Amino acid sequence: MIPAHPLALNAQRRLDERRQRALTRYYIEAGAGGLAVGVHTTQFAIRKADVGLYQPVLELAARTATQYTHRPVLIAGVVGPTQQAVREAGIARDLGYDAVLLSLAGLGDLSESQLVQHCRFVGEVLPLIGFYLQPAVGGIALSYNFWRQIAEIDALVAIKVAPFNRYQTLNVVRGVADSGRADYIALYTGNDDTILYDLLSSFQVTPQSPRINFVGGLLGHWSVWTREAVRLYERARELVQTQTDIPGEMTRLAWQVTDANAAFFDASNNFRGCIAGLHEVLSRQGLLEGIWCLDPDEGLSAGQSAEIDRVYKAYPHLNDDDFVAQHRDDWLR
User: Fold this and answer.
1) Tens digits of per-residue pLDDT, 124-175?
2) What is the distance between the alpha carbons of residues 6 and 279, in angstroms, rounded to a whole number?
3) Whole-angstrom Cα distance, residue 26 to residue 7?
4) Per-residue b or e along 160-181, where b marks 16 or more CB atoms closer than 10 Å to that residue's CB
5) Buried b / exposed e across 7-26, counting CB within 10 Å, b at 16+?
6) Can you count the helices (H) and strands (E) in the chain?
7) pTM above the 0.90 mark?
């Protein structure tokens, strides 16, 4: 259960270290098994030369996590051409991170064979988590053959599957199954429109293939209402592991989670307010001081705050406001 870590800023749009640490503590104490830092939810602009927050933010999360007996798995987001991606992976390695989540956004001019080679180079630095990002937000449509090839890379330990597309999701599953390495590669859902359904699903692409499940999720959605998300995740995993029939309650909850995600991520406006929407929830809970993003033009879309109001009222059992209120002051110490 891996939340994508947001970026805490003050009114001057500078890093608020106290609140950044508080977020890390929140996720760990809510029961998350890992943290993904330097990813889209952390804002890609942290890498800009005039911002310079990539290494400081990764270091702050790693330092905070080491204060816990059960340190979560630390995953660093890595982007850009090979030279940049390898450099970022080296920073993560030196800070004690366990793996990198490799985004291929912006590399659409490369062939799939070149993308595979790119993955190999980054995998020489740290264990590799592949990433199928939906094309609507900058991802690349990738074939079954691509996923079959990168599944054969020894350094590949997991794949975040987030194309928001059932056909493309199946291409990833087929590639992993046919690679012969299904026992070594963990599948994580990033499909925000079908989080619980992915966690409850089992795949078997041929009668001879192993059964494959999503073992978890790596999600910006899980950066809010995290305590209750952990509980839903644990229930889903238990049902799959015991091969118990899925109760109707879980399918109802699955749709409710999708509806909440649509509000947080601003799905009706092509995800324009997705980061600000998460900040809005964290701000309402008192974990963030405001919803500021590094880009001054990035904020809530018209009507998005009302949509968040609506899902708060419709699904009170999904929020963790009481848990946050109980521990917030300690996290902010």
Assistant:
1) 999 999 999 987 777 899 999 999 999 999 999 999 999 999 999 999 999 9
2) 8
3) 14
4) bbbbbbeebbebbbbbbbbbeb
5) bbbeeeeebbeebbbbbbbb
6) 12, 9
7) yes
Q: Are 8 and 291 in contact (CB under 8 A)?
A: no
Give the separation between CA 11 and CA 2, rounded to whole angstroms.
28
CA atoms within 13 A on the CB side of 190: 28
76: helix, strand or coil: strand
Q: What is the pLDDT of residues 226-259, one digit of tens each?
A: 999 999 999 999 999 988 888 999 999 999 999 9
Record the tokens describing residue 14, joined without a space.
């500078």
Q: DSSP for 178-223, please give it.
A: HHT-TTT-EEEE--GGGHHHHHH-EE-SSTTSPPEEEEEEEESGGG
Question: Is residue 224 a contact partner of residue 3, using CB atoms and an 8 Å limit?
Answer: no
User: What is d(CA 321, CA 316) in angstroms, rounded to the nearest whole number?
Assistant: 9
User: Cα–chain-centroid distance for residue 166?
Assistant: 18
**Contacts of the segment 145-149: beta carbons below 8 A, 24+ positions apart:** 145/112, 145/175, 146/112, 146/115, 146/116, 146/175, 147/171, 147/172, 147/174, 147/175, 147/176, 148/174, 148/175, 148/178, 148/179, 149/112, 149/113, 149/116, 149/175
Distance CA 76, CA 92 (A): 6
Taking a C-beta distance cutoff of 8 angstroms, is the pair 214, 229 a contact?
no
Instruction: Assess contact for 99 and 129: CB atoms under 8 A.
Output: yes
Buried b / exposed e over 41-55, threshold 16 CB at 10 Å, is bbbbebbeeeeebbb
Give me 256's structure tokens. Answer: 């409710």
Query: At 96, is the secondary structure helix, strand, or coil?
Result: coil
Structure confidence by residue, pLDDT tens digits, 55-99: 999 999 999 999 999 999 999 999 999 999 999 999 999 999 999
Distance from the first to the final alpha carbon of the chain: 25
- What gap in Å lies between CA 262 and CA 271, rounded to an integer? 9
Q: What is the spatial distance between Cα 11 and Cα 26, in angstroms, rounded to a whole number?
A: 22
pLDDT above 70: percentage of residues in the chain:
100
pLDDT at residue 282, as a whole number: 98
